[in-house]
Amino acid sequence: MTQLNFSPPPLLTEATEKLRAEVRAFLDREMAGMTPAQRAASWVGRSPEFSRKMAEQGWIGMAWPKTYGGHERSALERYVVLEETLAAGAPVGAHWIADRQSAPSILRFGTEEQRQFFLPKIASGECFFCIGMSEPDSGSDLASTRTRAVAVDGGFKINGTKVWTTGAHIAHYMILFCRTDTKSADRHSGVSQFIVDMKTPGITVRPIIDLSNEHDFNEVVFEDVFLPDSALLGKSGDGWKQVTSELSYERSGPDRFLSTFPLLTEALAMLGNRVDDRSAIVIGRIVAHLITLRRMSRSIAGMLQRGEDPAVQAAVVKELGTSLEQEMVEVLRLIVDVEADLGSNNAYTAVLAHMMLHAPSFSLRGGTREILRGIIARGLGLR
Question: Which range has the top average pLDDT, 11-20, 39-48, 61-70?
Answer without folding.
Answer: 61-70
